[in-house]
Amino acid sequence: MTEAPFLLRSDESGVVTLTLNRPQSRNGLSLGMLQAFRTALADIEADPGARVVIVAGAGPAFCAGHDLKELRARNYDPAYVDELFAVCAEVMQAIVALSKPVIARVHGVATAAGAQLVASADLAFASDDARFATPGVNIGLFCSTPMVALSRNVAPKHAMQMLLSGDLIDAPAALRFGLVNEIVPAADLEAHTLAFAQSRQNRP
Prior knowledge:
- This protein has 204 residues and is of the alpha/beta class.
- It contains 8 helices and 9 strands.
- A 6-stranded mixed sheet has the order 1-2-3-4-6-9, with helices on both faces.
């Protein structure tokens, strides 16, 4: 059987939706996923018909960060880890630099590099059951790279609360912190985000 693509793209009236497509790993950012993401962003940048980008996740979660199973399977090989983090940095920077606005459509969990992805987007709409965390501290690490994007979005003390505790915060806390723009009932999230994107994409 042919493996499903890492990333799904759909286009509707100038709005491009990119869906992370590894629900079995909570859309962990494996090297293959990140490479596909990098290519998709380059294609969108070059596409004059693409006016707004929505980033979403398939299955029960938005994105749980890096794919730890893949990291363990590679025995944390230094060359692989260097490449993984270099490509991840390219993706996050490409989102920030993209000439079209990027909206994160967040449901379930967005943790570690998944929270970084939310923070890197221009806008973020979250379902009322969404949760966010930078949990590296819980396994003896520190989410230093997500910290950069997070600190550009939320107040320093809120950022340090997330980074030093590793605790999950709910959607209302994420809204209060400034990590997301709106909270939407889960059943309405997809339609609401698309309607917002379509209402903006014809503006100069």
